[in-house]
Structures are given as structure tokens and as C-alpha cells.
Backbone:
């Protein structure tokens, strides 16, 4: 059972429901270029509308500096949202004040309003109680469906939940359920794959994982830092030599916690960082002096896949190689396919997310096959770091 209230517990008919959603979508030439985030909240909006709720959408867009700035207006997004929800979405050019309140009071069950960017007010990012009171005037109930913003203690993600009865929307609920299966109370053995460019951006994450999982696969550029810390000459490879001690600390913590560390044993190396650069496979201790590691090698992929075979739960963040340039996407694609097959066969719960992981898994064509792929970015990473997310915590307390 969920440890937070969901729409199952809410009586929304005729109520003004302030729904925090993630509409921070990429735009090109004034149009939404990728509507994935809007599509993700559709189940919540449709359910609320069908139940006769009066819906008021709250969201941020971009990084305006606490004041109106038309390049960050949510107005152009209303039309796309209407198309996706299959219902009109009326735009209101402020999220607090007389017009906002009057608009919220005037709508009927099933109607949808989109309030202007909450970050047009300083109080949003300051989680200012006065701003929260002003926002709360337009609602009877608060529903948070924006997991991706839940790592921030802002008014529309946290403060509002102290003033109104607060519930998780369906997307938030699905995300939290998936994350609970990943690291909360996972079926063991749990294997984590962490790749990507640098150790420096993922120190907390690695430190948390070694205490939580049975095996940690380290791939991508960050593996070079671990290899170098162990005395391997990684030649021209991306490597944070100054983090050798950090890498050693993480390895020692893993050993203490009984977490197996899986590092590359072979690598695909090239002389140039570009698509189809001439390349070869070498053992990691034989990287030529003028070459760099751009992917893990086939023996390493075999070892990773064997760990995936042993796992009942897989948590994945970051590619195993420079997946954007062929053929250095090979290991990421192969391991992703293997995890997808095992998930489809019912043997594995596979949870992935954060940064480039979504595009890497999309590139491998496995997004649908995984148990859950989170598009949440920063919030997903903070969850992997074992941090309490303010926007989630407040729903649990509500
Ligand atoms: P991150 O955002 O930390 O998950 O890093 C993702 C980036 O790491 C991608 O752009 C990859 O191209 C890059 N990457 C992965 N492996 C390597 C490598 N061996 N050398 C250089 N870059 C890499």
C-alpha cells in the first residue's frame, strides 16, 4: 500500500483542484518539440475531469528570475496540452491575484485552466508561506503529479501541501511505486549499472548505491577514474585523476558492505572522439598511449549480462560508453537489450532514469520494455542518492 494519499482517497467532484504538473517541455520556434511530459500527466487530468473536478494546472517553465518574463510564459503550451488532453485548456496570465481566483471560481466540473508560470513570483522558489496562501486561494485540494520537480522545496511542490489536503497524482504514484520496487523494498539480488561521463557528478549516488545493492557495475567514462585509481594507465581517456581517493573510498565502502564492484576488463579504444573512428578492442591494462576508451568491450558486456541474469531488480543510470557516436553505443545497446529481454520474460524489474539514460535507452529501443523509465532527471538522481525529496515527503505526511 502506498505511504501517501492518492486520487483513490480524494473526493474531487465540484472541487477546485490545483494540480502541479511538469510542463517544462523543450520548445522550438515557439512550439512544443517534445510533448512526453505533457503526455505523462494525461491520466491524472483525464481522471480528474471525468470525476467532475474543476482543474487548475500549476507549473514552472524555464528559469525566469522571480518576475514575469514572456520568453518563459506557459501560454504557448496551453494549446498543445489541450490537444493531448482532448479538452480545452484556458490560459490565465497569473497564478495568484484577483483574476486567477475569479477564473478558478468561474469554471465548472471538467473544465481546465492553466495558470501562468509559478516562477514569475519570487515566492515560488523561496517557498514563501505568503505566496502559498495566495496560491491556495484558488484551490480546495492540491494534487502533485510532478515527480520531476519533487526534489525542490518550492511553494507549488511543497508549501502548498501544508495548506490544502494533498494527494499524489497518478503519474507521481506510478513513479513512486516504481522507485519503491527499485531501491525501497526491492526483490534481491539488486544490481545497479552506473555509467556516464564523470564520477564527480555522481559521488553521492555511488556512495548510496554500494550500501543498497548486491552488485554495482561501473561503466562509461567514470569507470576510467576507478581504473586509474587502481593503477591502470587509461592513456588519453576521459578521467578525473584528482578523484582517485574518492574512487578508492567508494571501492572500500563497497567491500565493507559486501557489494560486488564490476569494472570493465576490456575496452573499445579510438584515437578520435567521432562517429565511425577507427577502433579496436583491448584489455583495459593495454590501452595504447595515443588512444582513449570510448566504450566497454565485449568481455565486459558478457560480465554485465551475467549480472543482469543473476538480478531480480536492476537500477540503471548512465550509458556504458559514448553512445551518441557509433559504434561506441554497442555495449549500452547490448546490455539494454539483455535487460529488456529478461524484463519481458518476467524475471527482472528494471528501473532506469536520469540525464542521458532516457535517450540512451530510447536509442536502444527498449524504453517500453523496461519496467519503468523515469524522465525525471534531477529528482531521479536525488532518489538514487538516497535523499528524501521534499515534494514526496510532504505527501507522505499529509
Ligand atoms: P552522464 O550525463 O553523466 O550520464 O554522462 C553521459 C555522457 O557520458 C554521454 O554523453 C556519453 O557520451 C558520455 N560517455 C560515456 N562513456 C564515455 C567515455 N568512455 N568517454 C567519454 N564520454 C563518455
Residues:
Amino acid at each position: 500500500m502506498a505511504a501517501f494519499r492518492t486520487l483513490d482517497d480524494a473526493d474531487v467532484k465540484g472541487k477546485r483542484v490545483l494540480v502541479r504538473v511538469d510542463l517544462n517541455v523543450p520548445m522550438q520556434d515557439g512550439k512544443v518539440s517534445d510533448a512526453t511530459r505533457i503526455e505523462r500527466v494525461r491520466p491524472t487530468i483525464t481522471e480528474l475531469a471525468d470525476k467532475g473536478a474543476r482543474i487548475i494546472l500549476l507549473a514552472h517553465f524555464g528559469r525566469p528570475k522571480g518576475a514575469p518574463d514572456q520568453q518563459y510564459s506557459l501560454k504557448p503550451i496551453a494549446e498543445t496540452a489541450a490537444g493531448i488532453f482532448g479538452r480545452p485548456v484556458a490560459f490565465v496570465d497569473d497564478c495568484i491575484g484577483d483574476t486567477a481566483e475569479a477564473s478558478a471560481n468561474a469554471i465548472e466540473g471538467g473544465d481546465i485552466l492553466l495558470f501562468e508560470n509559478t516562477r514569475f513570483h519570487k515566492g515560488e522558489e523561496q517557498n514563501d508561506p505568503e505566496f502559498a496562501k495566495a496560491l491556495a486561494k484558488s484551490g480546495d485540494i492540491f494534487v502533485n503529479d510532478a515527480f520531476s520537480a519533487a526534489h525542490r522545496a518550492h511553494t507549488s511542490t511543497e508549501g502548498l501541501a501544508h495548506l490544502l489536503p494533498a494527494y499524489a497524482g497518478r503519474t507521481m504514484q506510478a513513479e513512486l511505486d516504481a522507485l519503491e520496487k527499485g531501491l525501497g523494498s526491492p526483490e534481491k539480488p539488486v544490481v545497479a549499472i552506473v555509467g556516464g561521463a564523470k564520477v564527480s557528478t555522481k559521488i553521492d549516488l555511488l556512495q548510496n548505491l554500494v550500501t543498497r545493492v548486491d552488485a554495482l557495475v561501473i561503466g562509461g567514462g567514470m569507470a576510467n577514474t576507478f581504473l586509474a585509481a587502481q593503477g591502470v594507465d587509461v592513456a588519453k581517456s576521459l578521467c578525473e585523476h584528482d578523484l582517485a581517493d574518492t574512487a578508492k573510498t567508494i571501492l572500500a565502502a563497497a567491500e565493507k558492505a559486501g557489494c560486488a564492484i564490476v569494472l570493465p576488463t576490456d575496452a573499445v579504444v579510438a584515437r578520435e572522439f567521432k562517429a565511425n573512428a577507427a577502433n579496436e578492442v583491448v584489455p583495459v591494462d593495454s590501452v595504447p598511449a595515443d588512444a582513449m576508451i570510448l566504450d566497454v568491450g565485449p568481455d565486459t558486456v558478457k560480465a554485465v549480462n551475467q549480472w543482469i541474469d543473476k538480478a531480480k531488480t536492476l537500477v540503471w543510470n548512465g550509458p556504458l560508453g559514448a553512445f551518441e557516436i557509433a559504434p561506441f553505443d554497442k555495449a549500452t545497446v547490448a546490455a539494454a537489450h539483455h535487460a529488456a529481454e529478461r524484463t519481458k520474460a518476467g524475471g527482472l524489474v528494471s528501473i532506469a532514469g536520469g540525464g542521458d539514460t532516457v535517450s540512451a535507452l530510447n536509442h536502444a529501443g527498449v524504453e517500453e520494455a523496461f519496467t519503468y523509465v523515469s524522465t525525471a532527471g534531477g529528482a531521479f538522481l536525488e532518489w538514487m542518492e538516497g535523499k528524501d525529496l521534499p515534494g514526496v515527503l510532504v505527501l507522505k505526511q499529509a
In short: The pocket of adenosine monophosphate is lined by residues 195-198, 201, 220-221, 238, 293-294, 318-319, 321-324, 355-356 (CB under 6 Å). The chain has two domains: 7-174, 186-384. The CA atoms of residues 189 and 375 lie 25 Å apart.
